[in-house]
From TrEMBL:
Keywords: ATP-binding, Glutamine amidotransferase, GMP biosynthesis, Ligase, Nucleotide-binding, Purine biosynthesis. It comes from the Eukaryota. It is found in: Cytoplasm, Cytosol. The lineage of its organism: Eukaryota, Fungi, Dikarya, Ascomycota, Saccharomycotina. Its EC number is 6.3.5.2. This is GMP synthase [glutamine-hydrolyzing]. Its main location: cytoplasm. CDD domains: GATase1_GMP_Synthase, GMP_synthase_C. Catalyzes the conversion of xanthine monophosphate (XMP) to GMP in the presence of glutamine and ATP through an adenyl-XMP intermediate.
Length: 513
């Protein structure tokens, strides 16, 4: 394992991502981690970038015991400045900020870190810089603006680089990270999904033991399905999946989930239709966060009731709750940021643990989304499901803007179905990260036949993104949009007008509520 100590850079998670791309396992911990309390012994350490200045009061610093680990260390940007600060304090504010591409010149070709990286474009993003070489270090690479773009310790395998190898704009960045991890740290390249299945199944069997039982909610999305499939492989029918139809699902979704999970994958599945309960509770509510809370609480209520009716075999007990947490959520919770603001409350099942006194089991908590997809494919989950766009927990409840009624849900559902059907027909589904139709609570005048109409507006949204933190709208050709608009207005009662959302995130979010 390579340890990445995070100093709060927006790119930190990408370091892990890149290392895993050549099958090296890496984990991130906050920069404040005490080295004597590390949960594992790393073969190398990377100090990430960060938004602070090493010389300022209150700036975060690494535990100096990191040098006692006696493993190679690579400091990136702030991480390099931290190494320099510890070894002579020669760090200060540069005359100007350097942001964007720069060309690297390697001045010490014998340095193993820079093999195959000479004269390539690298990505800079800094204001502070090294003003002198730290004690015991030599310069190995320069760039136009940074005389110390790359430094190395004279004797020990300690390196610093001013640029960000983890972003794709650093053309040979991955080569550099591979040089560090594989050549210098000798990290093994055995992180594959095939190995993961094997070790994870063993881990779950040991954790759960010979008789305890596990329950989990499934939604029809890739994460919960892959999680359920792993549990099924590990403990068979001692895993109970529960699917709650909240009346806010997409068209045909419930039937499809039943078919895939129960009939296809042989997962022990209970389907509950709680539509009327959800819709009753949502009556009269228009505030998005209130809707989320109501949907989340109703879900917990229904789920607990169903769970209490599941009677495990004699002597055994439901002890665990499966949750499809992914690594980005874990990173989010451990990264070094200081207080961050809640934009939307996404997690609607948090309350379950407290109420039911269950322990959490999270088989996917080490994985990125694309790793989950690989895993799903390996485990025989149908392609369609593996590549499914994400669908929010509150479902159409936050895509019907304003009050959620059965009639409004029906309009949103039909429009969404047509949009997605056309996207699939055009072969665009996999190019788009997420697409849907939102129903706006405004009426607009139209004309159909010779009649004046006065009906609602559908907003189509389709985005491209890698991490859903930032997103750009998808550029369809006009013919495609024309066809979708015409089908929706003609086929869905209650819609007089269709618009296409051309806002990026930020400043907009993906969902309309
Ligand atoms: P936003 O709208 O925050 O969406 O830009 C980013 C991603 O999160 C999904 N999303 C949710 N998922 N519960 C969920 O499980 C929610 O309340 C929720 N709100 C947004 C959204 O669909 C997108 O993929």
């Amino acid at each position: 394992t390579i340890l990445v100590l995070d100093f709060g850079s927006q790119y930190s998670h990408l370091i892990i991502r890149r290392l895993r791309e050549f099958n090296v396992y890496a984990e991130m911990l906050p920069c404040t981690q005490k080295i004597s309390e590390l949960p594992f012994k790393p073969v190398g350490v990377i100090l990430s970038g960060g938004p602070f200045s090493v010389y300022e009061d209150g700036a975060p610093h690494v535990d100096h015991d990191v040098f006692k680990l006696d493993v190679p260390i690579l400091g990136i940007c702030y991480g390099m400045q931290e190494l320099a600060w510890i070894n002579g304090k020669g760090v200060g504010r540069g005359e100007k900020r350097e942001y964007g591409p720069a060309t690297l010149t390697v001045v010490d070709p014998a340095c193993p870190l820079f093999e195959g990286v000479d004269h390539s474009q690298v990505w800079m993003s800094h204001h502070d810089k090294l003003q002198s070489l730290p004690t015991g270090f030599k310069t190995v690479a320069t760039s136009g603006n940074s005389p110390f773009a790359g430094i190395a310790h004279e004797e020990k395998p300690i390196y610093g680089i001013q640029f960000h190898p983890e972003v794709t704009h650093s053309v040979q960045g991955k080569t550099l990270l591979k040089n560090f991890a594989v050549k210098i740290c000798k990290a093994s390249q055995n992180w594959t999904m095939a190995n993961f299945i094997e070790t994870e199944i063993k881990r779950i069997r040991t954790l759960v033991g010979p008789s305890a039982e596990v329950i989990g909610a499934v939604s029809g999305g890739v994460d919960s399905t892959v999680g359920a499939k792993i549990m099924k492989e590990a403990i068979g029918d001692r895993f109970h999946a529960i699917y709650v139809d909240n009346g806010l699902m997409r068209k045909n979704e419930t039937v499809q989930v039943k078919k895939t999970l129960d009939e296809g994958l042989g997962i022990n599945l209970t389907v509950v239709d709680a539509s009327s309960q959800f819709l009753d509770n949502l009556k009269g509510v228009t505030d998005p966060e209130k809707k989320r809370k109501i949907i989340g609480n109703t879900f917990i209520h229904v789920f607990e009731k169903v769970a209490s009716e599941i009677k495990p075999k004699d002597g055994s007990q439901i002890e665990y709750l499966l949750q499809g947490t992914l690594y980005p959520d874990v990173i989010e919770s451990i990264s070094f940021k200081g207080p961050s603001q809640t934009i939307k409350t996404h997690h609607n099942v948090g309350g379950l643990l407290e109420d039911m006194k269950l322990k959490l089991i999270e088989p996917l908590r080490e994985l990125f989304k694309d790793e989950v997809r690989d895993l799903g494919t390996l485990m025989g989950i149908p392609e369609d499901l593996v590549w499914r766009h994400p669908f929010p927990g509150p479902g159409l409840g936050i895509r019907v803007l304003g009050e959620v009624t059965p009639e409004q849900v029906k309009i949103a559902r039909e429009a969404d179905y047509i949009f997605i059907e056309e996207i699939r027909k055009a072969g665009l589904y996999r190019n788009i990260s997420q697409a849907f139709a939102a129903l706006l609570p405004v009426k607009s005048v139209g004309v159909m036949g010779d009649q004046r109409t006065y009906e609602q507006v559908i907003a189509l949204r389709a985005i491209e993104t890698t991490d859903f933190m930032t997103a750009d709208w998808y550029v369809f050709d006009a013919k495609f949009l024309k066809k979708v608009a015409s089908r929706i207005v003609n086929e869905v009662d209650g819609v007089a007008r269709v618009t296409y959302d051309i806002t990026s995130k930020p400043p907009a979010t993906v969902e309309w509520e």
